[in-house]
């Protein structure tokens, strides 16, 4: 039915990308001449199949079009629809693995037509349509185009840890909207961990009462989230991490532990000893009832039991557990863990659920339908696949490390060991999930740590494998990130207020200039920087600053391009940096700003080095070798973390120093 | 009971203002040594009287403290309260004119105590407390202080026109939050006008059906707004503007008109002919039932009937109306209007309501308890007062002109003709109301056209008359404006996304630099700029740009100060301006950016003039006279509006040119 003209798409991708800020980039894009005007008469009409979910999707898309353009919205819709939607059938009642998400979009100067076999496909097409709207010569318009699109992987997810820092329901909802905007289809909800048990259990209310500080989702809220996700074609998979990472369970139910209690909610980060007792029947009786309660709450067929990082100290120290192990011929802690998993799997199976777990659950005897989520990497994933298990990749997509989007974008689930798999084995790799563990994020900062990076990862999961040019990705990422603002995401909105807060009554612009030149560092740096717990405020400069600086990236592009406009931008910024330290200084006497003294000084030094480099470039001179060596040394010294951020501004200045060290600079003279 | 040490307050105001970003500035402020730390243990306790409204106020204030500081919020509150609230009584069930709003706030290093005779007084004190929180040497804290405070005027309002552009209920709610943050107590809701009838009538549903394009408040929403306002100590006064400005009524009820219909909703701006027929009994029968319905919906004792700008063409053209006038000895249209007002007043009185109207309602025979809202000015207001009427001033507080905060701040209800009033007459001037008519604002832009200017006007209404230093006001306005972000107001938040929208996939930073150097112009310019109607999109540069540029104001301060930090800021900005036009140019081919070509070029020219001026200043030279004359001419030519904005950047550059024209510049040499 569809002509999946991949070769054409590949040929076109670099050509189109410059003008079409789409992400994930569609499988097949054919540009046509002309544009379709988008003005106040914009209206969507539905032909063919329709239901409440489709109508809601049309309403949301229409709202989005008017919000993102700021067009006057008439009280009465116009007669002639601008976009006709043609859906063939509802699709599954609940979003399900493998649902057909394909769509076809045709735009001419006279109108647009979106068709898809399912409501979910229509949603994916709508997400593309709103990304196509751009300001132009005569107001807003969409280019005439033919798009045929469908996902590369059926499992494209985001995992959000709401245990280590509490994420109120509105955080979840707005992230679901953003996920839908980039065609993600799995929300993996990490609902319990040592630091928090975040769902209301009516059967065992002591779980949330003792395990959440009062911060948990009611069952009504869970239903709201699940319905909200369904409307957007997103599956919701709950994770209750057992038998390790269970301190929060044991705060209310110490009888489940492998060692006597009492237990208190964990406030620190790490791997801790409290572990469910896999040898007592009461454990399974409680889990049976609890999992039954949760299975009814979460309609998806898949259910995540965690299973990672099981610390076996309590097991080894317990004579009863060791006796049980001997009696059942369980020779080691991994075997005991495997026994536990098989018992849990049986409980889930009884409820019609398929188990998912992290790499560690893969052990002899594991049911063949289990899905393995790999934090260990492609080798581990490929090994599972060779054994017949389906899997998804998360290694390489850990958002809490705050790595550049390009780093994650370069990781492909089919790379490395997966490359050697045969077709059947390869087909068992279902896709991937990015993970946001929440040691160093709060409800206020989490959006800016997930987005826009998540959009690049979403492209990795959706678009053809060959769409992988990093420069091209970044050219599209900026406008896509801005577009996500209209989903109510706070990834850009919270930046300025968080800086304002630090400045108090003092001037905030110099603080913003410094922040624009910095990048926040992730868990690998922060865990060693100071004593963090779940009770520590996340309201400092490092929390306001973004993981990846758009400004710095633009300067890097300019330092590579060195066109007259590039030189203008570079000069303006370098001079602003030079002056900035004097401007920031009066804000001192404020601890939040005080910790930035060294960074601020260095930014001004960078500006001076940048200007010297530009001087060489513009005068067509090559910088002396000893100058270059000395500056490179200075730049290297500025690379160590300070106040838990990196001075990203070093990067474009290094490019300028390198450019100044090359001959034939006459072309840059103005 | 209170020692209103006004003299002391006046003496302290200039001293304190620099360190305390409070607005409105309290009547009496006594600084003390020390500071009270605000950290995660922050908690409010209530002593003495309490009720649901007080508890809600405590909850909101606590939320606000945690939001604005970003402190970790524990699931369980700490034992020891940081702020003790002591309320003596509930006060009136509904906020009412003349309610005691006084409070006393004492802060020491050990704790804070807020006491007030009413819940409303506690709310006012809470608004002060959150403004006192500032970042410092050891995190957030509040200075030790003694404050005794009460309002100067009992009527401190904001009028919002929701007829010309529709303002959804969330716009109203967030503005109520912001009003409470600056101690305003009257929300005047302009609910009907030629362009829209915005309330659901159950008795006459044709009013909203034919008169609102579907954009009206349900009665449930009205109740929500009234309750929300009550919780914040704000009265809600509805205005139904009659007998003129009634085209929207007549769309559904043409039988009320002074000339045969049919009538269509008006889309243009101005004064129009359709007017209620003041001579037919049916008019009063309908008004009786309608006003009865609305009187039950709005609990405040005061009810606004508009009454402004009655265009009498229909009356003059109607033989029946003219015959009625002769028969009743009504010699002119104003007398006919007065007759109408007296009839309406009787209908309101029957419902226990006191009438308010604009200046034009003041005519012989008007009931003595009527309140006159003056758009004509202090002379008109004083005249009403001399005749025994109470009044409020709105002239000078028209926000839709987008004048600087300082312009409004300089207007005092007791200035001009009011100065000559005796004590009794003066006491009849109850306060004032700022007015936001909505010809050129949408739900997206209205916040940034009201705020932060409204905070300065609120100070005029609340603080002692002697608090009027403009420099001091602006020094406080910036942090107060930032603080208002935490009320959910969008006055700052929508700026960047609206610019992003214009840039499309192009670079947005140069657009932001240009926007920061511009100021949006108001109704006096826009009404002649192009053909506007209620259907025109408000999504251009002029709509994104702010009415008053903080950046430009800071540059003006720097150009007056010329300290080393000032010079650094000026140099950095002037250079950025010089380079900006080249950076913006690549965005062209986009109509939204295209209309800014002249502005952008001029900003770069300004940067060059600024740098030349700085050159003279830094080298201790006086600029040649012909250079000065020529530059001043160039600057003057840049003052005409372009794309409906003013190039505010001219102002600091003019200051620099002037500074460079003076002798003895050696002090500025670095």
Helix content of chain A: 40-55%
What is the CA-based Rg of chain A, rounded? Answer: 27 Å
Secondary structural class of chain A: alpha/beta
* N- and C-termini, Cα separation of chain A: 57 Å
Number of strands of chain A: 18
Can you count the helices of chain A? Answer: 27
The interface involving the most residues is between: A-B, 75 and 75 residues
Kindly estimate the percentage of residues of chain A that lie in beta strands according to DSSP: 5-15%
Question: Would you summarize the structure shown here?
Answer:
By secondary structure, the first copy, chain A, is of the alpha/beta class. The first copy, chain A, is built from 27 helices and 18 strands. Chain A is globular.
Report on the architecture of this protein.
The structure is a homodimer of 670-residue chains. With 670 residues, chain A is of the alpha/beta class. The first copy, chain A, has 27 helices and 18 strands. In chain A, strands 8, 9, 10, 11, 12, 13, 14, 15 and 16 form a nine-stranded mixed β-sheet that branches. In chain A, helix 8 (281-297) packs across helix 11, helix 22 packs across helix 23 (564-584) and helix 25 (597-618) packs parallel to helix 27 (650-660). The radius of gyration of chain A is 27 Å and the shape is globular. Residues 1-17 and 664-670 of chain A have low confidence and may be disordered. At the A-B interface, strand 6, helix 17, helix 18, helix 23 and helix 24 of A face strand 6, helix 17, helix 18, helix 23 and helix 24 of B.
């Amino acid at each position: 039915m569809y002509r999946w003209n991949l070769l054409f798409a590949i040929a076109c991708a670099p050509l189109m990308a410059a003008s079409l800020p789409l992400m994930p980039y569609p499988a097949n894009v054919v540009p046509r001449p002309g544009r379709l005007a988008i003005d106040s008469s914009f209206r969507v009409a539905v032909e063919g199949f329709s239901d409440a979910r489709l109508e809601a999707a049309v309403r949301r898309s229409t709202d989005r079009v008017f919000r993102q353009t700021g067009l006057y919205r008439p009280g009465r819709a116009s007669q002639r629809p601008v976009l006709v939607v043609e859906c063939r059938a509802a699709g599954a009642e609940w979003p399900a693995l493998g649902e057909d998400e394909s769509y076809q979009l045709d735009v001419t100067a006279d109108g647009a037509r979106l068709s898809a076999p399912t409501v979910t496909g229509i949603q994916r097409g709508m997400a593309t349509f709103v990304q196509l709207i751009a300001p132009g010569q005569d107001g807003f318009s969409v280019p005439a185009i033919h798009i045929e699109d469908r996902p590369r992987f059926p499992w494209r997810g985001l995992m959000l840890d709401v245990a280590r820092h509490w994420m109120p329901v509105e955080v979840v909802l707005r992230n679901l909207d953003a996920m839908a905007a980039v065609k993600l289809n799995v929300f993996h909800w990490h609902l319990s961990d040592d630091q928090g048990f975040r769902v209301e259990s009516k059967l065992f209310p002591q779980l949330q009462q003792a395990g959440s500080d009062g911060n948990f989702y009611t069952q009504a809220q869970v239903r709201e989230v699940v319905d909200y996700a369904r409307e957007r074609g997103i599956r919701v998979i709950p994770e209750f991490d057992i038998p390790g990472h269970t301190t929060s369970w044991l705060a209310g139910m110490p009888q489940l532990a492998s060692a006597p209690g009492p237990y208190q909610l964990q406030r620190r980060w790490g791997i801790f000893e409290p572990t469910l007792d896999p040898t007592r029947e009461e454990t399974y009786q409680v889990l049976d009832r609890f999992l039954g309660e949760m299975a009814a709450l979460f309609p998806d067929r898949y259910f995540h039991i965690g299973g990672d990082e099981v610390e076996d100290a309590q097991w080894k120290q317990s004579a009863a557990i060791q006796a049980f192990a001997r009696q059942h011929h369980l020779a080691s802690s991994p075997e005991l863990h495997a026994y536990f998993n098989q018992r849990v799997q049986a409980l889930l199976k009884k409820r019609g659920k398929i188990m998912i777990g992290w790499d560690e659950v893969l052990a002899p005897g594991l049911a063949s339908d289990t899905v393995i989520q790999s934090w260990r990497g492609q080798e581990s994933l490929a090994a599972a696949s060779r054994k017949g298990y389906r899997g998804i990749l998360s290694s390489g997509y850990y958002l809490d490390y705050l790595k550049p989007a390009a780093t994650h974008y370069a990781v492909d689930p089919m790379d490395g060991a997966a490359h050697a798999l045969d077709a059947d084995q390869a087909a068992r790799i279902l896709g991937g999930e990015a993970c946001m563990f929440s040691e160093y994020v709060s409800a206020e900062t989490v959006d800016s740590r997930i987005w826009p990076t998540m959009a690049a990862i979403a492209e990795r999961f959706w678009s053809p494998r060959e769409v992988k040019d990093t420069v091209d990705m970044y050219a599209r990422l900026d406008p896509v990130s801005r577009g996500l603002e209209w989903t109510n995401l706070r990834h850009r909105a919270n930046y300025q207020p968080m800086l304002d807060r630090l400045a108090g009554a003092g001037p905030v612009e110099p603080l913003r200039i410094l922040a624009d030149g910095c990048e926040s560092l992730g868990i690998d740096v922060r865990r060693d920087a100071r004593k963090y717990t779940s009770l520590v405020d996340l309201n400092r400069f490092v929390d306001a600053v973004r993981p990846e600086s758009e400004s710095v990236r633009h300067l890097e592009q300019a330092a590579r391009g060195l066109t007259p406009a590039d030189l203008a931008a570079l000069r303006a910024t370098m001079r602003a940096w030079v002056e900035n330290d004097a401007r920031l200084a009066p804000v001192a006497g404020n601890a939040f700003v005080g910790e930035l003294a060294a960074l601020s000084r260095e930014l001004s030094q960078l500006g001076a080095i940048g200007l010297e480099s530009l001087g060489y470039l513009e005068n067509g001179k090559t910088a002396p070798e000893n100058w270059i060596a000395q500056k490179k040394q200075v730049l290297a010294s500025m690379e160590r973390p300070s106040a838990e951020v990196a001075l990203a501004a070093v990067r474009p200045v290094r490019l300028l120093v390198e450019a100044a060290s090359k001959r034939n600079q006459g072309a840059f003279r103005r």
